[in-house]
Amino acid sequence: MTAAGTPIAVVTGASSGIGAATARGLAAAGYRVVLTARRKDRIEALAAEINEAGHQATAYPLDVTDRAAVDEFATAFRTIGVLVNNAGGALGADPVATGDPDDWRQMYETNVIGTLNVTQALLPALEASGDGTVVILSSTAGHATYEGGGGYVAAKNGARVLAETLRLEIVGRPVRVVEIAPGMVKTDEFATTRFRGDTEKAAKVYAGVAEPLTADDVADTITWAVTRPSHVNIDLLVVRPRAQASNTKVHRES
Ligand SMILES: NC(=O)c1ccc[n+]([C@@H]2O[C@H](COP(=O)([O-])OP(=O)(O)OC[C@H]3O[C@@H](n4cnc5c(N)ncnc54)[C@H](OP(=O)(O)O)[C@@H]3O)[C@@H](O)[C@H]2O)c1
Ligand 1: residues whose CB is within 6 Å? Predict the structure, then answer.
């Protein structure tokens, strides 16, 4: 799975939201994108759309928490230019006192161990490219907590620490480590998944907020960060909508 002259960008969680938008953005920026997620039909349809637009994309169904599958996936690459660790999300918004440990476990598995799995497996190919970039989607939840956010905040702190530690450990090698920490992004599935299909609860997250970020806004920041000159490492990019001053300070018009 290498294309002479065309750098490869692997995007995890490319079946919806920020991952899908990032795949489109990186393809338009000249990367051959490899779309991964569990929903095969979604990534295959997106790969077809990107190819029809004259860019290059392939789909590879993958659960980032399945280490054996991730290792098998990695054998397909000798070199890659970019890895975007985007697969993740939140489950529940319960207080610490009543939160479900299984939700906490699952969030840690996906957001931290999933990112660790794919990063470990692809690091040799990133390094072999001579100019690799690892992007880790944390969140503003990885930088400050909020009531009801405990499990997600803990997991995204894990993702942040993974990025910061890796950057220290591989300094001097030709791989950049970029953390992107978005605030409120209105995507089709993030809040619905968090509230297990309760669309009313999900809608309340964005109620009255004039312009939450879109998946395209975040994809744009990711594409910008990875297309800086090789010696420029965007360590951390925090991006929020204008209407959000912190995780808990949000301007709502109604
Ligand atoms: N929306 C926000 O407000 C916001 C803010 C800050 C950070 N983020 C982070 O940005 C990332 C994308 O969020 P989003 O808003 O685009 O949410 P989303 O639409 O729910 O996307 C989540 C993606 O992760 C994939 N995924 C989940 N578990 C997976 C697994 N075990 N293996 C492989 N793929 C998996 C899903 O695909 P499949 O189900 O097909 O596997 C999906 O493509 C997440 O890490 C999220 O935590 C979101």
Answer: 12-13, 15-19, 37-39, 42, 63-65, 86-89, 110, 114, 137, 139, 182, 184-185, 187, 189-190, 193, 215
pLDDT digits (tens, 9 = 90+) for 195-236: 999 999 999 999 999 999 999 999 999 999 999 999 999 999
Q: How much is the average pLDDT of 83-111?
A: 98
Q: pTM to 2 decimals?
A: 0.98
* pLDDT classification of 254: cutoffs 50, 70, 90: confident
Q: Rounded distance, CA 159 to CA 164, Å?
A: 9
Query: Which atom of ligand 1 lies closest to the CA of 85?
Result: 45
226 in Cβ contact with 25 (< 8 Å): no
The C-alpha atoms of residue 62 and residue 43 are separated, in whole angstroms, by 10
Residue boundaries of the structural domains of the chain: 8-239
Residues 6+ apart with CB under 8 A from 31: 6, 7, 8, 9, 56, 81, 82
Domain spanning 8-239, CATH architecture: 3-Layer(aba) Sandwich (3.40)
Please say if 108 is a catalytic residue: no
